[in-house]
Amino acid sequence: QVQLVESGGGLVQPGGSLRLSCAASGSSFSIYFLRWYRQAPGKQREFVASITPAYSTNYVDSVKGRFTISRDNAKNTVYLQMNSLKPEDTAVYYCNGVTTGYNYWGQGTQVTVSS
User: Fold this and answer.
1) What tens digit of pLDDT does each residue of 91-113 get?
2) Do 106 and 4 meet the contact criterion of CB atoms below 8 Å apart?
3) H-helix or E-strand spanning residue 4
4) Which of 52, 59, 76, 101 could be cross-linked to 29 through a Cys-Cys bond (beta carbons 3.0 to 4.6 Å apart)?
5) For 61, left (φ over 0), alpha (ψ -120 to 50), or beta?
6) What is the DSSP secondary-structure string of 23-81?
C-alpha cells in the first residue's frame, strides 16, 4: 500500500509562487506515472500536470508556462512549482500515482490565491 501526502499549500497573493510537494511511502516510486489534479469549489476535479517515469511532462493549457512538475525518485517525491498564480488557480490540489493495477491519491492541499 502506498500513501501520498501533499504539502506546501497556503494563501498567496496574485502573481505569487508556491511549491507543492507530494511524498510517497513504499517502494517502486520510480515506475509510477505521477499527476497533479485540482478541484475548485463547485467544480469537477481537473487534470493539471503529469510526469512519466521517463520524465516526460504534460500540462493543461491554463497553466502552461507558469507551472512546472518535477520528480525526485531518490526522495519519493513529486513537486509542482506554481508561479504567476492567479485567483482562478484557487483549489484543492491532489497528487495521483498510477502504475499497472494501482491508483493512489493524496488527501489534498488547499491553495488560495487572493489579495
Assistant:
1) 999 999 999 889 999 999 999 99
2) yes
3) strand 4-7
4) 76
5) alpha
6) EE-SS-GGG-EEEEEEE-TTS--EEEEEE-TT--EEE-GGGTTTEEEEEEGGGTEEEEE
